[in-house]
Amino acid sequence: MEAPGGFAPMPAALKQAATEQLEYHMFVGLFPEIHRAWLTIDHMLFLWDYNHPSGSFYQYDGLEQTIINAALVPCKPGVFAAEATPRHLLLLSTPSEVVVLAVYPTGPAGSRDGGAREGRGEGGVRSPRGGTAVGAEDSTIDIHETGFAVPSDGDSAGLAGLAGARQFRVNFVAMAHTPCGRVFMAGADGFLHELQYGFSERWLGGSHRMCQKKNVSRKRDRAYNF
What we know:
By secondary structure, the chain is mostly beta strands. The protein has helices spanning 12-21, 114-117, 219-224; strands at residues 26-31, 36-41, 44-49, 57-60, 69-74, 88-93, 97-108, 131-134, 139-151, 153-154, 168-169, 172-177, 183-187, 192-201, 207-215.
């Protein structure tokens, strides 16, 4: 059900927080897939349901660096344990890293199936850090850490090992996905990277988390011949 006028306004408490806590940067956007608007104030992320003027919002402050971009993407199949597979993944880009979080809609307030969110084994998710639901909503969400993150440090052209290659941080200012869950990130340096995550087998048995970015831009080929 839509709020009068089509969209509910920003919760009053959040609007006050935005006025009082802003220090450096603030970004805003929409996640239509989960009917949420998002707002970042420095290292904090806020989400609220733009269809229901309940005045409640969700706050995540588990990062230390300023959040410069956020994206909601589908989860790749086979990465998480079946009982812990999230509906969506939330990507948060900071000047130092891109962090992958798991998003679980929990249905009506009070209807929380803990077993579906607490992963078991290597593919499970961990408990949330810094996530707080403020107020009560008709539908709620939980955000959990996945352990997947990739640093933004690296040579911009993907030319590690070549003479003159420089190492510096890249701000990823746009992130997009395919229906099957592949994730692509556009850097402020003009290069396109693919985010790759999952679990890889160890030589002596077992598995470990893998999260990396791969430069897939055609500019890379031109850089080799520069």
